[in-house]
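Encode chain A's predicted structure.
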Amino acid sequence: MPTQLEKDLQIADRIATLMDAAFRIPGTQIKLGWDALIGLVPGAGDTLTALPLFYFLFLGWRHGIPKSKLLLMIGRQLLDLLVGSIPLLGDLFDVAYRSNQLNARTLRDELAKKASQN
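Encoded structure for chain A:
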């Protein structure tokens, strides 16, 4: 039976995949997710795509990862939000910059590091 930590990480990974790499553009190797699609909606789109960050931060806080890593995750999402809000360039950036997958990987790496120290 999976532990709560394993369940939390599986959910984080699923969210990151949905947001950053859920779909493949036919005939290419390019993947994009709901972040890029919702980000096409002017104004509100980029703000809505920042919501998964709150879940990642909650998981990090819940499992005790360092505040510096939580701040790194916030910084990545702010970069995604700021650049993503620029018409056209922001949409291309959303396809290339996968802040949710980076944040999920940070959670996984930090928690693995913490587990190995115990």
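Residues 23 and 83 are 22 Å apart (CA to CA).
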